[in-house]
Amino acid sequence: MRPQELYDALDRELESIKEQKTFKYEVPLESQQGSEVIVGGRDVVMLASNNYLGLSNHPRIKEAARKALDEWGYGLASVRFLCGTEPIHIDLERRIAEFVGCEAGILHSSAFSANEAFFAGLLANDLGSTAYQDAIYSDQLNHASIIDGIRLCRGIAKQTVSRPYPHSDTRRLAAMLEEDRDKSYRIKIIATDGTFSMEGDLAPLPELVRLAREHGALLMVDDSHSTGVLGKRGRGTHEELGVFGQIDVMTGTFGKALGGACGGFIAGRKPLVEFLRQKSRPYTFSNTMPPMVVAGSIEAINMIETDPAIVDTLHGNTEYFREQIVRLGFKIIKGLHPIVPVILGEAALAQDMSRELLGEGVYIKGLWYPVVPKGEARLRAQISAAHTREALDRALAAFDKVGKRLDVI
What is the predicted pLDDT for the residue at 296? Predict the structure, then answer.
C-alpha cells in the first residue's frame, strides 16, 4: 500500500467510525479543570474527570507547584541516574510507598509506564536461571496498561505464559492455580486492578491475597482509580477491603485523585524496587516527573493525611449521586466507588445522550465496545469531593430531562 493509498484508507475508516457514532470527539475546555468547567462560554457540571478529590487546581497544590518551579526548575532534562536526582523525588517515593503500605517506591512518567516497567523489567531478566517459565494470571477486565505490559514482556521474555481469568472469578483462578501447582514456574504473578475503571467495582482482594500466599505468587494491584479515594484514610481498595499492607506490588498514578497532573509509581519490597531501578527500561530511558508535579503530589498526600475529611466528603457525594440516579430510573452498576456507570446499551445512544446532556449543562462521556462489552455502552459519571449538592442536583435534573427525552427512563 503506497502512502496515498494508506491515507485514503484511513479517511474511509474515520468516516465509517463517524457514521457508526463511535468517533471520539474532544471537547475544548475554556477553564481550569474542576467540579464545574466552561464549555462554549457557559458553566457546565464536570462528570467526566478523574479529579476525585477536587485537587487538580486546588490553591495549595498550585502554590506547592509554583514554589517547586522556582526552587527546582522546570525539568531534569534526562533520566535520573545520568543527570542526577532531586530530594523531592526521593521524598515522594518514600511518601507514596508509606501511603499505600509498602516498603519502597519508584516514580514513573505515568501509571501506564509503571505497569509496563514492572512486568518487562522483572520478567525479561533471567535472575540466574538458564531455563525457566513465568506465569501471569490476569483479570480479563484489567486496564490496558496491564494488558500491554504483559504483551510487552511476552515479546521480550518468550518464556512468559499469560493466563487470563474471568472477571473477579476467584473460583476459576483458584482452579487455574491448582492446575499449575506442579509446574515449575520461576515466578507466578496474579495481576488485577484494585478498582476497575469501566465498572467501578472492586477486585476481591482478600481472596486474591489468600490465593497468592497459598500458591507462592506475587499479587500485583494497579490501584490508580482508588489511591486517595477508597478506605477511611483514602489509602485505596486494599484499605477499604481490610488487606492494607498485604499486597506485594502496588502501582498507581498521581494523575487522578493525587493532584490530577501526571506521573505514576510502583511500590513494593525494597529488593524488587531497587532491581527495577537498575533494570526497568521505562525508568532507565525516560525522563522523570517534573519538579512542580512532584511537589504538587507531595502536597496532595499531605492534605489527605492531615485532614481525611476530604475523603469523607467524596464518599458522601458518591452515595448521594448513586441513590438519586437510581431513584430517577436509570440502571447503574451497584457499588461504592465514585465511578458510576449509567448503562444505556448501544453506542449511538451513549453518544446522543452525552451530546444532549452537554446542551443541558453536564459534561459526561460515553463508553462503548471495545472499551466495554458489546451491548453495554454507558455513560461513566465520576463524582468529586469538590461537587456541591447544588451542582449534583443540577446534573441529576439534566439526566432526568434528557433521559425522558430519549426514552431511556
Answer: 98
**Per-residue confidence band for 31, with pLDDT thresholds at 50, 70 and 90:** very high
Whole-number percent of the chain with pLDDT over 90: 79
pLDDT confidence bin for 157, thresholds 50/70/90: low
State the pLDDT confidence band at 126, using cuts at 50, 70 and 90: confident
Is the peptide bond preceding residue 370 cis, with omega within 30 degrees of 0?
Answer: yes
What does residue 308 show for φ and ψ, rounded to 5 degrees? Answer: -70, 5
Q: Which of 197, 224, 354, 384 is catalytic?
A: 197
- Does the annotation mark 256 as catalytic? yes
20-52+308-405: in CATH 3.90.1150.10:
yes
In angstroms, rounded to a whole number, what is the distance separating the alpha carbons of residues 373 and 361? 28
Instruction: Give strand ranges (E) for 202-305.
Output: 218-222, 249-253, 264-268
197 belongs to the catalytic site: yes
**CATH for the 59-306 domain, from 3.40.980.20, 3.30.420.40, 3.10.28.20, 3.40.640.10:** 3.40.640.10
DSSP track, 89-136: HHHHHHHHHHHTT-SEEEEES-HHHHHHHHHHHHHTS-TT-SS--EEE
Helix H, strand E, coil C: the string for 278-336 is HHCHHHHCCCCCCHHHHHHHHHHHHHHHHCCHHHHHHHHHHHHHHHHHHHCCCCECCCC
Q: Is 374 a catalytic residue?
A: no
The chain-wide mean pLDDT, for the chain, equals 93
- pLDDT range class, residue 24, cuts 50, 70, 90: confident
* Catalytic residue (one of 215, 225, 315, 387): 225
Is 106 a residue whose pLDDT tops 90?
Answer: yes
CA 45 to chain CA mean position, Å: 22
Start and end residues for every CATH 3.40.640.10 domain found in the chain: 59-306
